[in-house]
Amino acid sequence: MDNSDGEVEEDETEWKTCFVDSAAVCPATSPAAASGPVIESAHRVILHFDLDCFYAQVEMIRNPALRDVPLGIQQKYIIVTCNYVARERGVTKLMSVTDAKEKCPELVLVKGEDLTHYREMSYQVTELLLSFCPLVERLGFDENFVDVTEMVERRLARISESDSLSFKGNVFNHSSADANASHHPRLAIGSHIAAEMRDAIRSKLGLTGCAGVATNKLLAKLVSGTFKPNQQTVLLQENVSDIMGCLSGLRKVPGVGHQTAKRLQALGLVSVKDLQLCPLGDLARELGGTTAQRLRNLALGIDESAVTPTGAPQSLSDEDSFRKMCSVKEVMAKIQELLGGLVERMHKDGRQPQTFRLTIRRFSATNKWFSRESRQAPIPSGVGQKIVSGNIEDTVSQLVLLAGKLFHKMVDCSAAFHLTLINVCFSNLQSRGPAASGKGAITSFFTHNASPRKTQISSIQNQNNPAQNADSCLLDHQISEFSRNVPPKGQMTCNSEQSEENYEASCSTEGINSDKTKPPPHVDPEVFRLLPEEIQKELLSPDYLNSLQSYMSKHEPPENDSSMKADRSRMNHQQPAGMRVINEENVMEQEKLWLSLSSDCNFPGNVDPEVFSELPPDVQKELMSEWKQQNPVLKTPSSRKTGKGSISKGKDRKAEGRSSQSNNLLKYFKPG
């Protein structure tokens, strides 16, 4: 869980659980209460699917010659999983490669550090389950929860009294023949649905797996592993206390993680029975009421959490573990390697990440697996856009710089260090497309112009000053958000077909028909048509045009630009006589302001000069003033402070553009 300072503590839960308030669950204080009267949740039917030796199965599908030989999937120096042929010869999960070879000299090893094939097959399994039922929740690569309650109810409604029911597969603590399915019709029907899904997974994907059938997620997960491989088991409500009593320790309870188990052990609670018998008041005093009730519910097998369709992942990450890494050069090389694969995955995903997190694990003789720490930072918008566009190499180089700064915040490189894991992660993933900021939001009508020149300028500046690039995440985000709201080059152009009649109609104070009304000069008709009516009126209002004319009258146009003279001549013939001076000076003013201001002010790295030149003069001047003062944050009236300095600046701006302040389009561009 992320702390406010960016550190990450080890997650205490091993799988996703949500629990109801204590008043809504059985307040029993003894194990016997768990097998008491059946509550409403007993009508739920939850399935848990767990694929057998998943990585090994994927490799055997890719290479059928591996099916009948002892196979181990190797990551670094350990066997992360193996097939059942290898298990019969003494090989186990998480065994070192050396020990596995001693147990089984003929063991065939396949490198499993590239998870691409496993990830793809995992999503195929989930998609297949979704074809049966919409309520599917992923749990890692090889596990899925499925809520088939509605399917069961539909089938149950079609069954007549004369129909006989039976269980498919095993029944916990019963033989299938002895268990009376008529007393548990929903679980019996659920067992047949589970068998159908397992058959589909095997016939269509070639994978086998186990399934658990129970009344909640906790129990379904526990019972799914009682008979392996390629089998399924039903847990009746009357046997809940039996399966909970079979657990060897609290760490075997899904939802009780390492940190929670340590806290319980400090209270003298080691077994599930200890937790069941511990007075709830004592637990609440030590752990808080909510946590105490949650743990009590777990120990009694009570779980009201819903099966939540997973949808797209909320984050993408990649990591690597090793025996020892103790130099900055090695660390940065490993980060670059991990980012190469992760950026490519993120590009294929299609969403744009907003946050980057770096996690490390230091060596600890006493706390080998749970000593992680993290730092995170916002991803510059320009870098995020490069991920989406597929500029992998440039993106990785910039993210490596950002990761380096985060690493130095966690590790004192002047002293010796010993790392055993590095993890890189993208989070806060946002889909491309207009932001859902409201029907009248002007940002929804403009798209970002991926200017090659902008990319080139940003790249050069970042190479010249990499440290500044890493430090300016917030600046980059804010400036790029503004630039993204600016119309692409070529859209803010003069409408050559505007007639005098249409122009007069467009200036009418009555309702505007954007399909028939011609836009003002220098505005693309398509963009103008999509603008909200209130903004169209403002752009066409005499006040706005008069204020623009007043502002431009202070400047004299250049006389040596023949192309601009030709443009102005063409515009004069296409517009009403009364408007020619305004529009002529507008064109000249924009060029003059652009030339005069750009010569003595450096642009931020993520602002395209060509795009900037297309902005209205008052917006250009305000932005340039901000940048000259080295204050890149775009200000709005509501965000200005009331200090003396800001008051004087506000007065200057008010005096400078008093007549056009109310019509300044900058108010529609909110800071990122």
TrEMBL record:
Residues 46-257 form the UmuC domain. GO terms for biological process: DNA repair; translesion synthesis. This is Polymerase (DNA directed) iota. Keywords: DNA synthesis, Transferase. It comes from the Eukaryota. Signal peptide: none annotated. InterPro entries: DNA/RNA_pol_sf (IPR043502), DNA_pol_Y-fam_lit_finger_sf (IPR036775), DNA_pol_Y-fam_little_finger (IPR017961), HUWE1/Rev1_UBM (IPR025527), IMS_HHH_1 (IPR053848), Rev_trsase/Diguanyl_cyclase (IPR043128), UmuC (IPR001126). It holds the Pfam family UBM. The keyword Transferase applies.
